[in-house]
Write the structure tokens for this entry.
Amino acid sequence: MSENKAQDFQQLALQLAGNQTSAPWLDALRFQGSEQWLEANWPNRRTELWKYTPLQALQRGGFSTWASAQKHTLDDNATLKLEAIRLVFVNGQFDAEASSGADAAVVRFSQASEQQQAIIAENLGKTVDTKRHLFASLSNAWAQDGVLVHVPKNTKLDLPVYVVHVSTPEAEAAIANTRVLVVVEEGAQAELIEHFISDNQMQNGFVNSLTEISVAANARFDHYRINLEEEHIIHVGGVHIQLQRDSQYHGFTLAEGSKLKRIDYQVTHLGQGAHANLNGVYLPRNEQLLDYHTNMEHVAAHCTTSEVFRGIIADNAKAVFNGRIHIHQDAQKTLAELSNKNLLTSDTAEIDTKPELEIYADDVKCAHGATVSQLDQTSMFYLQSRGLTKTQARTMLSFGFINELLQDLPQAAVREHLHEHLTKLFAKEYFVS
Amino acid sequence: MLDIRNLNARVEETEILRNLSLSIKPGEVHAIMGPNGAGKSTLGNVLSGRPGYEVTSGSVEFNGKDLLDMEIEERARAGLFLAFQYPVEIPGVSNMEFLKAAVDARRKHLDLPELSSFDFMKIARETSKRVSLDAAFLKRGVNEGFSGGEKKRNEIMQMMLLEPNLCILDETDSGLDIDALQVVAEGVNAMRDGKRSFIVVTHYQRLLDFIVPDHVHVLAAGRIVKSGGKELALELEAKGYGWLEDEVA
């Protein structure tokens, strides 16, 4: 039964993808993506990459159309207070009115100059292994509009690029594709903040979101990806990063809030001396399912990875964390560390965590670890014995668990926004105590 | 202030307090001494409402209210304070944030306006000086990486900030050197104002040289077996607890 439905979704999505209009120079990628999407085996329980994350919600979604431009009803507090090059997309469609700021380095695909088109054609879809990342081929098949951030050699973008993706109710359940391509040239530097939100809990929708980042030698890229879409949104996201010699990637991601979110990070260290730093927080509650898969591919020698993920899982929610570090044969002198800690705040919360080390070089230093714990009752009592309510105490302890990752975020606007958002989130009454 | 009548309490299946009765008037300092396992710490835990400590019979009145009917935080807000024998380390939660939340809760209960962050910071800094804690501790995680003595001084600092009506010091002197002990004692003595009451639970007579009690009680096998004035503590120091157990038996 599920096989049939799966095929239905595959074919339906492809049909919808085929209906998208785009510039002819994207045709080759779209054709290739369509083929791969159609040929791909639909994931089931035996598919290792999707073992703990069933896609029934997607199959049952009844998606019959693609998302269209709608007005959203969010107030100013929903987005960051930040001076930035701001691009707002509503259901995948550009919202010129809500967007502001401009820089020659930032352009939408549909507005790209010939030179920029060449950069897009050269890089788009090139960092993604579509065999491993099924939904990337759908994104390719759908390639239409998107954001290009192209930072020329030895330059620095003065302002951060802030891309907001808002989901807002449609008459029918709809699919939105979002796409960002970042090309940072040698010695250059830039910062990107991706912010996903929805303005309605009851809305049904599927967001397929792909971000590709290519960081050239000696360049640095800072990246935030904040996923806050609410209850009925399904989000499948991929972030694919390639690092050249002595380049740096600093990433932070946080996700909470919907019935299914699956986010993949893949970082490939291609040049010696490259450094990746990736921190993440996931906070599923109610009946939500949140899945982070990260994969660090150490191809070159003398590279470093530092990765810390923390999860707080409440109510009947479930989280999946799979952190893979793959050290290739030539990647000698690699230093890689991965830590994943989880806090379960109810008896029915679930975490499936799996750190994976695959090492084919003999002179490397790698450490990985995962822990699962519950709210400490002695700490709860200590805080309550000083006059704090149970809710206050739980909020404080929850913050305490992830604060290490939040308090040092260099981007103050993100830090403050999340602090406010999470204070409200943690204070909500849990339905399982 | 506090009226404990025939209190029986247990932890899991073990009866710890048996028919304990104790009455404390405003301004009084009561020392509770006794051998290990007598139930000294249990008393503080039961009074503050610690989960796992079950009262099977008896009553406790606190300022005319049924204490046992109150939630943990309600007891704290109403002015009951327990200085922990083993204060908890809570990494990631800043001491300052925690203290402000606690003081806000207490002030709200007393119908006092909430302190601004600036005013609170000033008071917290002054108070930390009084217990010889570097103000830098305020920014760290709650008790995170504190030494034993620093943790105890942090308890006294919390007590000073919260200005409770009844303070229970649960072996606050254990593991303290003489200097730290004096800091703690000075803190307590400064708070003796004729209205505030104290229960000082201790193993050693030493603390009572610095905090002079009005009454001394000996707790053995879950009940008070002997009460007296401050001289009783000296007697215990000299003779140990053995003779009391004989006396009771």
Notes: The mean pLDDT of chain A is 91.
